[in-house]
Amino acid sequence: MKELKRYLDSRIGEFSFYFEDLKSGYTYGFHHKKQMDAAESIMLPIAIALMKEVEDKSLSLEDKVTIGDDEKYDSYCGIMKYLNSREFTLNELLIAITVQSDLTASNKIIEILGFEKINMHLKSMGLKNTVINSKLGENGNNLSTAYELSKCFSILYREEYLNKKNSKLLIELLTNSQFRNKIPFYLPIDSWSSIANKAGHKENVEIDSSLLNIKKGDFVFTVMTKNLPSNVYGITIISRLAKMMWDIIDSNWR
């Protein structure tokens, strides 16, 4: 995995990444505990917090909330800004944030749960350096680390915070993510159905976090970037880094 660090050493910007073999326990990281802007990737722990509230019966996925036109966020992703104002179930909001990274849906969930409760769940998950400071698309940064975004996926994989049913539900939804232009991009197309990921994007910031359940084993891999010359530059770096990671697994793991 040292090849990944050498590659990043020659790139422009700030980077962190974390890799873990969930079966053997092998890990490799680079600045993986450094707090960085998580952008939409913060929806991963938000989704876990929401499902914990559902699991504890404080909420139901069938609960309905109204989203008005004044609550819709005009962003590069998501469908809710195009829909007429109406009642949506929490299940619909959950699908919107996991599959589409919909800002309108995520901000409604943040409003329902509240910052204090979400951050309480983050601490309960052992995420010491992950914090929700603001709604998405607004001023302020929501922070995490490559290690802790990866830990969110390992928590789902090991069913450590949610029960089996809810852990599998989130993994299934994230496996259907519509954002496959970073970690999955250069990987074999027949592996995509075995890769769950949650991407993030802001100006000169690109992130992707993933869980890979593939023939060679089960792995988590997260890359965070900032201060990039351009977003395309960051997308290219993450996708190439993921291909390097894949080739190392393919050659060296049995």
Automatic annotation (TrEMBL):
Instruction: List the signal peptide residues.
Output: none
Q: Which Gene3D superfamilies match?
A: DD-peptidase/beta-lactamase superfamily
Query: What Pfam families has UniProt attached to this entry?
Result: Beta-lactamase2 (PF13354)
Its Gene Ontology molecular function terms? beta-lactamase activity
Superkingdom in the source lineage? Bacteria
Lineage of the species this protein comes from: Bacteria, Bacillati, Bacillota, Clostridia, Eubacteriales
The biological processes this protein is annotated with in GO are: beta-lactam antibiotic catabolic process; response to antibiotic
Question: What is the name attached to this protein's record?
Answer: Serine hydrolase
**Keywords, in A-Z order:** Hydrolase
- Where does the Beta-lactamase class A catalytic domain lie? 16-225
